[in-house]
Amino acid sequence: MNDNADVPGMIRVQRLISRHEPGEPVALPIPAAELLARYERVPAAVVSDVLREHALLEQAFPGTLVALRPDRMVAGIAFTVKSSPNTRVSGEMTIRGRMLDDMPADAFVVWDTSGDTHGTMWGGVMTATVVAKGVRGALVDGGIRDTAQILTKNFPVYYRYRSPSGSLGRCQITHYQIPVRIGDVFVCPGDIVVGDADGAVCVPRAMALDVLVRAEEIMGNEQKIFDWVSQGQSIAEITGKGGYF
């Protein structure tokens, strides 16, 4: 039956399908390298403020995900991974290998672990592999290990916990490059992920340039406010010129 059919009493699911199975990402309006380089000069907090202007209040990833390298600002294109707790071992290395082969340069891995609290999905060998491919960062809603090895690669990772326990025999990758949800954030492959010491935020791909331009504008305005403060201007003077605190 056609999901768009206007049949009385039938549940219409086409809009839900288009949201959860969006197909190929739309083309970016400017080269990805330029877009990401500019995003890496914009704080995640400013990006979040712009998304709020669009009434998008659920774009910041949970604060329980912490930055392994809080000194780094990073932006990349979402490459999504879905795994779940599972004691089965067969097939795990096969899908993991395919996933790594398909991971492109400029990717920002976003890993939905289905609430896993035992295994670690990210480690030193994974980091070395993706760095060689030009991947920009990873956000893992679960565990990491081999922390010292990751740090030597200067690779930005956001994670929930650390543990020496590996993933094999504890969880399995089930899908990749499908929409996932981390906390309240719905992430589609191809979205833009921006992270710094405050955390990470997801920008829907279709509005990536508009959000960036507005964020750059806000940064310019904030620099004016900092200049006014350094000049010793009063709060009344600053707010009278449109400044804020």
Provide structural commentary.
There is one protein chain. With 245 residues, the protein is of the alpha/beta class. It has a single domain, classed as Ribonuclease E inhibitor RraA/RraA-like (Glucose Oxidase, domain 1, 3-Layer(bba) Sandwich). 33% of the residues lie in helices and 23% in strands. The strands form three sheets. Strands 1, 2, 3, 5, 7, 9, 12 and 13 form an eight-stranded mixed β-sheet that branches. The protein has a three-stranded parallel β-sheet with strand order 4-6-8. The mean pLDDT is 93.
E-strand count? 13
Using only C-alpha atoms, the radius of gyration works out to 20 Å
Low-confidence stretches: none
The main sheet comes to: 8 strands, mixed
In CATH terms, the superfamily is: Ribonuclease E inhibitor RraA/RraA-like
- Separation, N- and C-terminal Cα atoms: 56 Å
Q: How would the global form be characterised?
A: globular
Counted by DSSP, the helix tally is 8
Judging by the overall fold, what is the CATH architecture?
3-Layer(bba) Sandwich
Strand residues, percent: 15-25%
CATH fold-level topology: Glucose Oxidase, domain 1
Features:
single chain, 245 residues, alpha/beta, Glucose Oxidase, domain 1, eight-stranded mixed β-sheet, three-stranded parallel β-sheet, 8 helices, 13 strands, 23% strand, globular
Q: Topology of this protein?
A:
Blueprint: H1 14-20, H2 32-39, H3 44-53, E1 66-67, E2 74-85, H4 92-102, E3 107-112, E4 120-122, H5 124-133, E5 137-140, E6 143-144, H6 147-152, E7 157-159, E8 161-162, E9 171-176, E10 180-182, E11 185-187, E12 192-196, E13 199-203, H7 208-230, H8 235-240
Parallel strand pairs: 2-3, 3-5, 4-6, 5-7, 6-8
Antiparallel strand pairs: 1-7, 2-9, 2-12, 10-11, 12-13
Helix pairs in contact: 3-7
